[in-house]
Design a protein that fits this description.
5-stranded mixed β-sheet, globular, 638 residues, mainly beta
Length: 638
């Protein structure tokens, strides 16, 4: 009997491949059935939807000649709609210095212009007018029709306390536009000394090495040096070398702040020794957050055509070191649902404390349309102690099926936030690919099963020119948590049910009324601003955390953490976001819904000061908006 039990133990601990695959298939079928639990009744939906109301309006940048598809290299002529499927982006920030993140940086692919504009319909308290909409023009620096903007990252890049903008592109290296604090900007400055052809799809700010200064990561997609937007090019071009294990993409680039000072941003590119199968991912979204409590941010690369990567930060000041982590696969876990082993199409990343554990989880968009490619989104929640990261283990398990968040459509950016101030997080997601009259899903399914050796040649791809339709009638889901703990999409119930091809999402309390507003960047169609006018919003705690600079200035405390005990006893944690996601950027502020409570709540603040040391401060803060200077030298610390 003992011998049989031992044999069974060995079988369960290290099952043969046929058994693992069979059990994984059964698990997939069981989970698919779980995801098909009955939908809420009409009354339940109505009760949930009653907490939300958004007033929608257009978000329009500098006008210019419009188009609906990009000019591409002849090598990509047969898939020009596919190549033209990215480029819309939006960020919310305080560019005019009025104390509110009521300004937008909008990237519109129809005009290929990057505009900074006041959020429409708002006037800051005490003001009678706003600044004029301006375009962030890359000229007089080298720029031509083979280049196109892909996103806008707000940040204080020169340490003068004013909000600047970094614009990243396809076809060239990023540019920095220094803000004057009144809605105006300088001539563009090169991020790198020797401009090159990069194809960047995301960027974020984070203190990578723990020296107290924000650094930069630029995530690329196509290989550096490509000329895919050059209609005169006759050079051979390449696509990914697999639909599930592609490692021939453009590398990420890491920049340390090398002593930036007012008017003179200074970033030095540094080498990071990453394995080739990590370095060459086709990255569409990038995120940075401290996941193990040392205030050194881990990095999450959401990769198209292959496994996403979570990198554990083991850096020291001036020296970057990251170690790839992988999740542990259980007996019933499909390999593609294990962090670091997936084969999906990562396109968005956000961090949030969804389960009230006091630890951040990771939420990832993939291609998750019904009956298409059989992929799902991810909701990686903590599933073990953070100390496992020191052993190369990612202690997270995917809970997307159980939460009802596994499927929506062709997903891009996503953001989790409490839009009703009731202490529960909603999830909004950008979705859709290309809109046309010919359904090309059958060809895409066939392409996904093609030989990996054929995929790099764009000439063997199906017809993905204008007229092709792939998830062209998707709407941006708005997931709300029901009484049973599962999420349900209420977009149609709150006025977001119409089809739109969206890419980027930005969140901020733009009018200072205590609730969060939303901007949606759409691809090849007008973008939207949604002012939150929720009919029964609770109270909120809003924290604008800043760190001191010279001459009395300050800037956002990127990476600082607040741990709040809610009135019902739950603990919620959040960190100041330096630009996580695909092409949407939330304001660098923290927001906690408190329900109906008016009582002060305990808050623990943790941040890394300019000396590189971690500081902790305990506070009790009443509901409302608090601008806090995190000054370790001041009495009380903050």
């Amino acid at each position: 009997m003992l011998k049989s039990s031992t044999a069974l133990g060995r079988l369960l601990h290290s099952p043969p491949r046929w058994l693992s695959r069979g059990l994984a298939l059964l698990a997939i079928l069981a989970l698919y059935g779980l995801a098909r639990l009955p939908e809420p009744s009409a009354d339940e939906r109505a009760a949930l939807a009653a907490a939300f109301r958004f007033v929608q309006g257009p978000l329009e940048g500098v006008p210019g000649p419009m188009r609906g598809v990009r000019e591409v290299s002849p090598a990509f002529a047969g898939i020009s709609a596919w190549i033209s499927s990215v480029g819309a982006g939006v960020a919310l920030a305080d560019f005019d210095g009025d104390g509110l993140a009521n300004d937008a940086c909008l990237v519109d692919p129809r005009t290929d212009l990057v505009s900074v504009l006041p959020v429409p319909g708002l006037v800051a308290p005490g003001s009678t007018a706003r600044f004029a909409t301006v375009a962030l023009d890359p000229r007089p620096l080298p720029y031509d029709r083979t280049m196109a903007p892909m996103g806008c990252l707000p940040g204080d890049f020169d340490g003068d306390g004013r909000m600047d903008a970094l614009v990243y592109y396809w076809g060239r290296t990023p540019l920095i536009f220094l803000g004057d604090g009144r809605g105006g900007f300088s001539q563009p400055l090169e991020l790198v000394a020797q401009p090159a052809r990069w194809y960047s799809n995301s960027a974020t700010l984070a203190d990578l090495d723990g020296d107290g200064r924000p650094d930069l990561v630029i995530a690329n997609y196509f290989p550096d040096g490509s000329r895919l937007l050059d209609p005169a090019s006759r050079a051979p071009e390449t696509m990914q070398h697999s639909m599930s294990r592609a490692f021939n993409g453009g590398p990420a680039h890491f920049f340390l702040d090398a002593g930036s000072r007012p008017g003179q941003p200074a970033f030095t590119e540094v080498s990071v020794g990453l394995p080739a199968d990590v370095r060459g991912g086709w990255t569409l979204a990038l995120g940075a957050a401290d996941l193990d409590g040392d205030l050194l941010p881990e990095l999450y690369f959401a990769n198209d055509f292959g496994p996403d990567r979570l990198l554990h930060n083991r850096s020291t000041p001036g020296a970057l070191r990251f170690v790839p982590l992988e999740g542990r696969r259980g007996l019933f876990d499909p390999a593609s649902k294990v962090l670091g082993r997936d084969s999906f199409k990562g396109m968005g990343i956000d961090f949030a404390d969804l389960d009230g554990s006091g630890r951040l989880g990771m939420f990832v968009s993939n291609i998750a349309a019904e009956h298409a490619l059989q992929e799902s989104h991810f909701a990686f929640l903590p599933g073990g102690p953070a100390g496992l990261m020191q052993q190369g283990i990612a202690p997270y398990t995917d809970q997307s099926e159980a939460l009802g968040l596994s499927r929506s459509d062709w997903g891009w950016d996503l953001k989790l936030a409490d839009f009703a101030n009731d202490g529960r997080l909603e999830l909004v997601q950008a979705t859709g690919f290309v809109r046309g009259s010919v359904n090309r899903w059958p060809e895409l399914q066939e392409l996904a099963m093609a030989n990996d050796e054929l995929l790099p040649d764009p000439r063997i791809w199906a017809d993905f020119r204008p007229g092709a339709d792939l998830s062209g009638n998707a709407h941006p889901p708005f997931f709300v948590r029901g009484a049973d703990g599962r999420y349900v999409d209420l977009a149609a119930d709150i006025g977001l049910g119409r089809p739109m091809i969206s890419r980027g999402l930005a969140i901020a309390d733009v009018d200072g009324d205590g609730d969060l507003d939303l901007a949606i960047a759409n691809q090849w169609e007008p973008s939207l601003f949604l002012r939150n006018d929720c009919p029964r919003c609770g109270r909120s705690l809003e924290l604008v955390l800043r760190v001191p600079l010279a001459d009395g200035a300050s800037r956002p405390a990127i990476g600082a953490e607040a741990r709040v005990r809610l009135p019902d006893g739950r603990v919620r944690v959040a960190q100041v976001d330096g630009g996580n996601g695909h092409s949407g950027r939330r304001a660098p502020e923290l927001h906690f819904g408190l329900g109906d409570s008016e009582a002060p709540v305990p808050v623990t603040l943790r941040w890394r000061a300019a000396d590189g040391q971690v500081h902790v401060e305990e506070r009790r803060l009443a509901p409302g908006r608090h601008v806090l200077l995190l000054d370790a030298a001041a009495p009380g610390g903050a």
